[in-house]
Design a protein that fits this description.
alpha/beta, 12 helices, 17 strands, about 30% helix, globular
């Protein structure tokens, strides 16, 4: 009987935005506007918007810059903790000074919804822009399909508490329904800023979680089998899932340090629309990783690829953050998180991140793990540049036309489920969403 295996995906979702109760405006006899229309009209009239914001400015600054450029409306940023900002909104209830509040967990918004006015963006349709498949599928749908087809049968979504409802409404509930028909289990884990090692506290002013290492660590207690990790907004192709699954089937407790990663051919990961950064794998003759050379500014050339004017072998294998890990690795990750707080976090308490690839590299050089590089020849898709979006859509259309996928994406798996009343190789699949 084949072993149970877990699988993690990683996604960034930044949600939670609500309009403060409308500022007083002169009454007139014109037809009543919706709250959204009223807010938009007022902002246009004043030429300014006051944003109450409780996260890091590194998230907000580029959005504010683009908003001001496109609308001509100046954004006045008021930054503070979520509780302090809502206390301010309450104190200003009779004469609101803010226009929009952004940041914090959804429960805080529910508790204070009487101080907020409903708002429906005129750009709400743009939220569907993640769709790349013929029926509105997103990249993650194809990854889940390929993982289940390869043998995984459990998905654990790792998300933040503040996006739980929005995530389930947009993605989770739909995937749960599909997976229920296929006999695939769904579970959730939650990454949180305040989940730090015992004896440590969150630095004052820190607003973002601690990175991909902490995201995977959020699965401790849920993931008890060997598992795989990917970025959920990247398309990896079918071969990589099969290769990782087959590798992890060889896990035994005496092989706790035997890890793996999918190695993609560099030429299959480049963008036609600009430079990219890739981790070029350095390996021994047995295809075990000895290091990853982080290389930025890689562009396509007439002869292949180059970075900084120097040619790069386009047949090189690169890491696209698709890992095969063991249950014991989670304990190493836990210990590493303590070390991160001892050494890295104090030097940069507001921005330091506990990153999975960096920690694996540290373990590799300390001879605590080995990493087998599993070559895969499928083309990697991702939207690095806005111009990549249409290329990705066209690529999926071709995959459907070529019969790699059904137009009704999961229909082939449903047929298999009907013909097999019990799974021949149960696997645990974890999805990492943060």
């Amino acid at each position: 009987m084949k072993k149970r295996i877990a699988f993690l995906l990683a996604v960034v979702m930044l949600l939670s935005m609500a309009a403060c109760a409308a500022k007083e405006t002169p009454q007139n006899n014109t037809p009543a506007e919706t709250p959204a229309e009223a807010g938009q009209t007022e902002l246009a009239d004043t030429g300014e918007m006051t944003l109450y914001y409780s996260n890091s400015t590194e998230w907000a600054d580029p959005l504010i810059e683009e908003f001001e450029s496109k609308t001509g409306i100046k954004v006045n940023l008021v930054q503070d903790g979520t509780s302090s900002l809502f206390a301010r909104v309450k104190a200003e209830a009779s004469n609101p000074q803010g226009d929009v509040i952004w940041g914090g967990v959804i429960d805080t918004y529910r508790a204070n919804q009487d101080m907020l006015q409903p708002y429906t963006s005129s750009n709400v349709a743009d939220l569907k822009d993640a769709a790349v498949g013929p029926n509105g599928e997103i990249i993650m749908d194809y990854s889940i399909h390929d993982a289940i087809e390869a043998g995984f049968d459990k998905i654990v979504f790792i998300i933040r508490h503040d996006i739980e409802d929005a995530f389930k409404e947009a993605i989770g509930d739909r995937i749960e329904k599909i997976c229920a028909e296929l006999g695939v289990e769904i579970d959730y884990a939650f990454q949180a800023l305040e989940n730090v090692p015992a004896g440590y506290s969150v630095p004052e002013g820190r607003s973002k979680p601690w990175g991909t290492g902490q995201a995977v660590l959020a699965c401790k207690g849920i993931i008890k089998e060997p598992f795989a990790v990917i970025n959920a907004d990247d398309y990896y192709g079918k071969e990589a899932f099969v290769r990782l699954h087959d590798f992890l089937q060889g896990y035994t407790p005496d092989k706790a340090g035997d890890l793996a990663m999918a190695g993609f051919v560099l030429k299959n990961t480049l963008s036609d629309n600009g430079a990219v950064t890739r981790g070029i794998c350095q390996m021994n003759e047995a295809h075990y990783l000895t290091g990853v050379l982080e290389t930025s500014g890689i562009e396509k050339t007439a002869d292949g690829a180059a970075a900084g004017g120097k040619s790069i072998d386009i047949e090189s294998l690169v890491s696209m953050n698709m890992w095969g890990l063991t249950p014991e690795f989670v304990d190493l990750l836990d210990a590493g998180f303590v070390e991160f707080f001892e050494k890295a976090a104090p030097a940069n308490p507001l921005k330091a991140e506990y990153l999975l690839p960096i920690y694996i590299d540290e373990l590799l050089h300390a001879d605590k793990v080995s990493v087998k590089v599993l070559p895969t020849h499928d083309k990697w898709f991702g939207v690095t540049y806005a111009e990549d979006k249409q290329i990705v859509i066209d690529s999926f259309a071709k995959l459907v036309a070529d019969g790699v996928y059904e137009k009704d994406l999961f229909s082939d798996l449903k047929k298999i489920a009907v013909n097999h009343t019990s799974p021949s190789h149960p696997v645990s699949l974890g999805g990492c969403f943060y």
